[in-house]
Amino acid sequence: MDPFYYSFNNYLKTRFQSRVRRISLNAGFGCPHRDEKLGLKGCFYCNESGFVSYKDIKLSLVEQIETSMAIFKKQFKADKFIAYFQNASNTYAPVEDLKQIYDVIKQFDQIIGLAISTRPDCIDDQKLKLIDSYCGQYEVWLEYGLQSIHIQTLELLNRQHTMQDFLDAVAKTAKTRIKIAAHVMLGIPGESRQDMIATALSLARLPIQAVKVHIFHILKNTRFAEIYEQEQFKLISEPEYVRIACDFLEHLKPDCAIMRLVSESSQELLIAPLWMNQKQKILHAIGNEFQKRGTHQGSYWGKNK
Ligand code: SF4
Asked: Is the Cβ atom of 161 under 6 angstroms away from ligand 1?
């Protein structure tokens, strides 16, 4: 149990009293924001190969699930699983197709949850109704990519949605039984410590139950890779990230589960920052920083209302 923040693993252990692992799946979804036929180039940091789940779409969803289950049972003694639709925008299809795709979980007794990652502007009432229909039997999560509350940052990343899109999606989802997570990036060029704390404060006011934190990084074959080659703009250092991760967590609600605090990337694709793929070392440094400060997740929550 991490004494400084409420990890998603702790949440799962308490909720299910057993070893639960998330199985990342690639259902072959596209993204409404990356349709080259429409001239859309997607987020400037996005490289589809950067998603950690199955690259080989030739494997069916059933095969992906069976393969991951076998590995996680052996490696982690896991006995329950959450099917996590991770690649691209996993609500970007007609409702009937979505149902057919998500229904794969019904073939596996050991799957107890469904998690779906998407853009906040790629959801509607019909899709929410479908996703909510799994809640009677499964733990169901919708994970919305936000990255930052600041419009200038969303523009810099070329997200092509607004904070209002995110607020609308959260408000609609909160009326269902679906649990909500937000994806956020720390260390985006141009964002100050106060900007990142402001994002934490906004999330702490919303009905969301989890946050997934990514470190801003540059992957090959992205627009940012081209810009970085020309400008070599400054990226956050490891000690800076450790401090800002603590600042960020201190302002979140104490019961908001942290799905991830240190993102990793394929070494072949990563351009910068190269310190990023040392997850355990960085997590250890974050623990030390909290200890030095005498704080923890939620220490300042509610004090800036
Ligand atoms: S919304 Fe997601 S999948 Fe689409 S371009 Fe952005 S990062 Fe890539």
From this structure: no
